[in-house]
From TrEMBL:
Single GO MF annotation: arginine deiminase activity
Cross-referenced Gene3D superfamilies: Arginine deiminase, L-arginine/glycine Amidinotransferase, Chain A
Broadest EC class assigned to this enzyme: hydrolase
Domain of life: Bacteria
Catalytic activity: L-arginine + H2O = L-citrulline + NH4(+)
Protein name: arginine deiminase
Pfam families: ADI (PF02274)
GO biological process: L-arginine deiminase pathway
Keywords, alphabetical: Hydrolase
Family indicated by similarity: Belongs to the arginine deiminase family.
SUPFAM superfamilies: Pentein
EC number: 3.5.3.6
Length: 270
């Protein structure tokens, strides 16, 4: 297993995490696509074919391609990971204790492949065979989502970004993306590719609410020689930048030039 390390945005790519467009995109409709952060619905079959061509091109260049769905299936094979994901993604606070308990029991009976597909791709009430005394279920319409699809999981760099010898598991700004991070938390904790490996989790791996400390990985650039450039944007807040920067400094992995880079950003934003 090669070392988990990203030292440049322009160096040789050796391994990449992709998510093939599947069930989540089939749940995009003209009425919900904006809520799910898409401008329009996509041609799902064509998107899959284009994704396969892209992955094939990467492999032809000796890049190891990891697929998120496959990693999640393999992670769910670990009992602790499966239990944690069901408790986290199907929490009492999200669904109410009555519905959450029975929904977890229903999902727990699925095999790992089916469960991963539902967690990534979503589930409508019309697809749910169980009936509960839950107020939430009684008030929901058939085409409402029990589990919202995660079509933005396509953008794997946003949810977790690697910086030199570690990774930031980013607390996402938009509600449509916030569940994504839990999948990566589980993968990096329990999947055999990552469990036991020597890497740092700089930020976002704790089971807590990060409030306004939001980051998307597209705003984090590894520019080499120990320096990191972090942009403040609609989805990356100053609080997120400060928390990630503090963890980077504490780790001692990036060089001291990171400090001047961060201070330059802060000065430019004042």
């Amino acid at each position: 297993m090669s070392k988990l390390y990203v030292g440049s945005e322009v160096g040789q790519l050796r391994r990449v995490l992709l998510n093939r467009p599947e069930r989540a995109l089939t749940h995009l409709t003209p009425s919900n696509c904006h809520e799910l952060l898409f401008d329009d619905v996509l041609a799902v079959e064509a998107a899959g074919e284009e994704h396969d061509a892209f992955a094939s091109t990467l492999r032809s260049q000796d890049v190891e391609v990891l697929l998120l769905h496959d990693l999640l299936v393999e992670t769910l094979a670990v009992d602790d990971a499966r239990a944690w994901l069901l408790d986290t993604q199907i929490s009492d606070f999200r669904y109410g204790p009555i519905f959450a308990s029975e929904l977890r029991q229903y999902l727990a009976q699925m095999d790992n492949e089916h469960l991963a597909t539902v967690l990534l791709g979503g589930l409508a009430y019309s697809e749910l065979p169980i009936k509960t005394p839950s107020i939430l279920q009684k008030m929901s319409r058939p085409l409402d989502f029990v589990i919202e699809p995660l079509p933005n999981h396509l953008f794997t760099r946003d949810t977790s970004c690697w910086v030199y010898g570690g990774v930031s598991l980013n607390p996402m700004m938009k509600p449509a993306r916030q569940r994504e991070t839990n999948h990566l938390r589980a993968i990096y904790r329990w999947h055999p590719t990552f469990a036991g490996q020597d890497f740092i989790k700089y930020f976002g791996d704790e089971d807590l609410h990060y409030d306004n400390a939001n980051i998307e990985g597209g705003d984090v650039l590894v520019i080499g020689k120990g320096a990191v450039l972090i942009g403040i944007s609609e989805r990356t807040t100053p609080q997120g930048v400060e928390n990630l920067a503090a963890s980077l400094f504490k780790s001692g992995k990036p060089a001291k030039s990171l400090l001047s880079t961060y201070l330059s950003i802060a000065h430019a934003c004042t």
